[in-house]
Amino acid sequence: AMAETGEMMHWQGIVADKHSIGGLPGNRTTPIIVSIVSSLGILMPKTSSRAITSEAGTADVMEVLTPVEFNSDKIREIVDKTKACIVWGGALRLAPADDRILKVSYELGIEPYSKMIVSIMAKKVAIGATHLVIDMPIGEGAKIENYREAIKIKKIFEFLGKKFNIKVRVMIENVGKPVGRGIGPILEMRDVLRILQQRENRPLDLEKRAIKLAGNLLEIIGKARRGQGEKLAYQQLISGEAFKQFQNIVKAQGGKEGLDSENLILGATTYQIKSDKKGIIEKIDLKQLIRIVRLLGSPITKEAGVYFQKTVGEKVEVGETLMTLYTDNEQRLHLALAELQKTELYHFERNEKKGSERSEGSYFERNEKKGSERSEGSYFQ
User: Over the stretch 79-109, which tens digit does the pLDDT of each residue have?
Assistant: First the structure.
């Protein structure tokens, strides 16, 4: 009843869905989760957003490979063919009548988050979801900063789920760092493809998050017993079934064929940021990171962004490449570098011996030669 003034999608049987509350740059789990879950024959018509204040939304990232704007008839055609889609929700007139859920939310006293919860749940009802996993990162940089608030929001999602016959599982995790290695549409899609193709240089943190969320979704659906979902999700990944399914989805949406992570073309204007400190990286300022990536041109300029050679928890020597900036012109690069000079993007652990203080000569030394990309082992090793 809640979404009847807008478009409503109706499906037969189980309809899986996933939503991330957001705030973590590079947390591009959706294409991986949709590929894993739908490769098992489960319907997963996924609507995603574009970036408003972030570096990229899932719709922006998917648009690197395929169109994402479709009406409901075309979405039904795609899902009938492939069991899934990954499309921009803004092209559909889903759930404009949010006020009924809003009224329920106000009664439960969580007004600061009401609009967010309403928007999410209204769209899930409208898309016809029956089973929903919510990825709720907390901590510095995330939209929800502490565990106490997260528990309140978790309870409201569960309450509304029962009210509208959606089985909900909320996953709360304190992450506090970028996820994956690439930040920006093409760089994030490269990470996704590296995971789906099981390349050695894939980012294991992003893979682990995607497997965890997909596994929990498979458990609440009943496709796997509690505690066994991650193994099933991982199996779909390493067998190549998830990648095959992703290719089917992209093709059905009118996208590219012959997908390969290493064939994506990045911005031609690049700049390597070198470390003038020795130590272990404790933190990367997420808000500042998003600002830098947007100054480079993301998400409008798909090839713009940042690739991390070194990220949180890793040891760095003086002179090593911390990250590479990509854009399509020198002006954008200069804007990003000017912003970088005003702030400390990387923070090192205090107990480590530090090198000389930052200077333009070391931290901003231009070097067109790219550092080697980290090779990582198997998730279940």
Answer: 999 999 999 988 777 765 454 555 555 555 5
Task: From 238, 256, 260, select the one nearest 194 (Cα to Cα).
Answer: 260
Q: Is the dihedral of CA 106, 109, 112, 113 positive or negative?
A: negative
In which residue are the tokens 């319907």 written? 43
Contacts of 297 (CB under 8 A, 6+ apart): 267, 304, 327, 328, 332
Half-sphere exposure of 75 (CA within 13 A, CB side): 27
- Residue 347 tokens read as 């923070």
Three-state DSSP state, 301: coil
Q: What digits encode the pLDDT tens for the residues 145-174?
A: 889 999 999 999 999 999 999 999 999 999
Q: Looking at this protein, which amino acid is placed at residue 116?
A: M
- Measuring CA to CA, how many Å separate 380 from each of 208, 314, 376? 9, 20, 12
Predicted model pTM: 0.88
CA atoms within 13 A on the CB side of 64: 30
CATH numbers and ranges of domains, the chain: 16-252 (3.40.1030.10), 265-363 (3.90.1170.30)
Could you tell me which residue, 111 or 353, shows the higher pLDDT? 111
Give the position of tokens 């099981």: 198
The answer on pLDDT for 354 being more than 60 is no
Residue found under tokens 């998050």: 209
Residue 299 preceded by cis peptide, ω within 30: yes
- Nearest CA-CA partner of 51 in 224, 290, 225: 290
Quote the tokens at residue 251. Answer: 């093709």
CB contact at 8 A, 232 and 221 = no
Closest by alpha carbon to 135, among 30, 289, 36, 47? 30
